[in-house]
Amino acid sequence: MLLLIPWMFALVVVTEGVLPAQARPPQRPASRDGAPTVRAVRTPKPPVLDGLVTEEVWQLAEPATGFRQKDPQEGEPASELTAIRILHDTQHLYVGIVASDSNPDGIRATELRRDDSLRNDDIVEIILDTFHDHRNGYLFRINPLGTQYDATVTNEGQTTNANWDEKWDSVARVTEAGWSAEIAIPFKILRFAAEGQEAAWGINFHRAIKRKNEDVFWTAYQRDFDFEEVSQAGHLEGLSDILGFRLRFKPFVRSGASRAIQRGGEYTTRHLTEVGIEDAKYMITPQLALDLTVNPDFAQADVDEAQVNLTRFSLFFPEKREFFQEGSGIFQFGTGEAFGRPQVLLFHSRRIGLSENREEIPILAGLKLTGKQGPLEVGLLNMQTRRSELASGQSAPGQNFTVLRAKGNILARSYVGAMFTRNTAGLTGASNWTGGLDAGFTFFQNLDLRGFLARSDTPDRLDGEWAGQAKLEWDSDRFEFLAEHLSIQENFRPEMGFVARAEPNWKGAKRNVLEGAYKPRPGIDWIRQFEFSSSLEYIADQEDNLDTRTAELGWSTDFASGDALDFEFSRNLERLVRPLRIRRGATVPRGDYRFDQFRWMYRAFRGRPLSGNMSLELGEFYNGNRTGFDISPQLKLSANLSLDPSYEWNKISLPHTPSFTTQELNTSVNYSFSQRWLTRTTFLVNSQDSQYAINFRLNYIYRPGDDLFVVYNETKTYGQEGRLQNRALIVKFTYSLDR
Does position 269 have pLDDT exceeding 60, yes or no? Predict the structure, then answer.
C-alpha cells in the first residue's frame, strides 16, 4: 500500500499534460505588499438601519469594489457587482452593503435562525483582524433576511468557534436591483490594540451567489486560501477615537423541576429555583478580559447527538456550553481531528461540570482571564465544582480545575506556546497535573510544521507519562500532503483533557500517518474538480506491537452544480489483545483480523430546498460482515421551518452470533416565528444503548445578548426493561448590564 502515494504523483505527471492551460490557477503573490485598502470614515451621525444604503452619510465613504471569483473561475471578475462602504463613530463600526443582482428573483434567503451557518443562502461575510496580527479575527455573516452568524477565528481558521455570540445589529432587504444590508458592530464586543488611538485593522469580504454556486472575494481570492486566513486580508484604515467597554454584568434566574431514576430503581423529584451570574466581565485593558461566573447554569445548551460506537476509540462530545466559548481558541493544545475526533487534548472543558455519563455536576464558581499582551496570548482558568450525588447513584467529589496557557507569536504566521493544567480529587482520587510545550510554523504560504511535547503526573504512576507529536503538512488547491508521528505512553493521563484510546491495560500507542492528495481541475464545464487521495495509518503500542493498520484509496468529484460524489476503499488490519464487545451478546474474540471495506457518498448542493448527504458502506467487519447506510437530508420548507433528520443503520453479521442491526436517529425540527422567537425540537434514538431522548427549546431573544429560555428534556430506555430515566422542565431568564 505504500505504493499508493507514488502512484498518485505519477498520475500528476499524466494529468498535468492534458490539463488545458486555462484550468491551471495563477501563481499567488509572493508578498502582501499589494493588499487593497478601504478607509473607515467618521460619520457626523449614525445611519438609520433600514437595510437601504441610501442615506447621504454613506456617500462620505469610498466603496470597496473589484471583487473576484474564487469559484467557478479563479481570478475572473465577479459576475455581479458588490460595493461595501464603512463608517464609524466612537461606539460603532457601520458597514453598508450593496449586492447587485441581475436576477433578484433568484436570490436565495431561507433562514431566520441566528447562528445557523447560512450555507444554503446568499451571504456576505466580513472578517476583522482587530490586532492586525495576521492570525486571529472576528467573523460576521448575514443573508438577505438580515439573519446573523458570528464566530471567532484562531490561528487562521485552525479553530473557528461558532458558539461565540455577541450583540450587533443588521437589517437587510431584497430590492429590484439585488439586495442590500446595513450592519452596526459595537466596538465594545471586540478586542483591539488601544482605545482612542488611530488604528489599522485587517479586513476582507466574501459574497456567495448561491444559485450560480459562485464565491467572490475582495482580496485573497486564490483557491489556496480559506477566508479565515486573515494573513491574506486587506487593510482597514481611518479608525480613531474608538471606545470599548469596561464592565458587563449578566445575572440569571432559573426555575424548574426534574424527575430521575436512582440506582435502587426509585424515582426522585426535585423542584429547584436558582440564581447566579452567567458572566461578569471586566476589561483590565482593551486587550485583556477578566470573566467571573458564579453558580452557572447550562440548561440552554444543545443536547449531545446520539452516537453509535463500533470502534475501540473513546466517544468525543464537543463543548456547547456558553461560558467556555469566550477565548476558547487560546486554550487549544493537542492534535487536530482524525475520524471526527481529536487524538489528544491537554484540556477539554467538558471535563468540568459533567460526569463521564454526561450528568451535570454543579459548579460553585469560575474565573477566567483571556486576551493579548503584545505578541503574547494568555489564558488562565480556575473553577471549583461542588460535591454532589448524581442521578446514576455515583458520588462526584468537589474538584478544583486550573488551566494556564500562553502563546507567543513569532515570525509572520508562527507561534510557540506552553500549557499547564491541574485538577484535585480526579478520577484516581488524587491530584493530576499536565504540562506541555507546543509550536507551529508556517513557511512558503502552504507548508505547516507543528508539534507538541507533554507530560502528565498522577501519584500512583511512576513513569511512562509522556506524549508528543510531530506533523508536517502541505495544503494547496492542487496538492495535499501530510506526515505525522504521535506517541502516547501508557501512563499518560491528562484528566482535564482527552485521549482517543485509553483502554484498561492499555500499553500506549505510536501512530504514524502518511496522506496525499492530487486535486486537478480538468476544464470540463460540468466538473469543477477531481480529487485522488490515498493514506496509510499505522498504530502500534509502545513495545512496537502492531495494533491497527489502515490503507485507504479515494476518488471524489465535485460537480459544477455543487453536488459531489465520493468513493473510498480501505484495507484494514486490527489486532485485538482482548475480546471486543460490540453489544450485549455480540463479541469479537481476540486475534488478528484483516478486512476490506467500500464506501460511497453523495453530497447534495446546499443551495436547494432539499440537500444533505447520503452514504453506503459495504464490506467485511473483523471476522464477519457489515452493511451501513447513513442519510442526513436537510429540508428547508420556508424561512420559518426546516428539518434536519439524520439516520444511521448498520447490519452486522458475526460467526456464532445472530446478525443484528444498530440504529441511530438524530432529528431536529426548527421553527422560527421571527428572528427573535426561535424553537428547536430534537429527537434522539440510539439502539446500541436502547435509549431515546427528546429536547425542546424555546428561545426568545428579547434584546441582543439577553434571552428567555424554556427547555424540556426527557430520556427513556425502551425494550423489555424500558423506563423513564429522567425528565425536566426548566425556565431560564438572563439580563445583562453593560458599562
Answer: yes
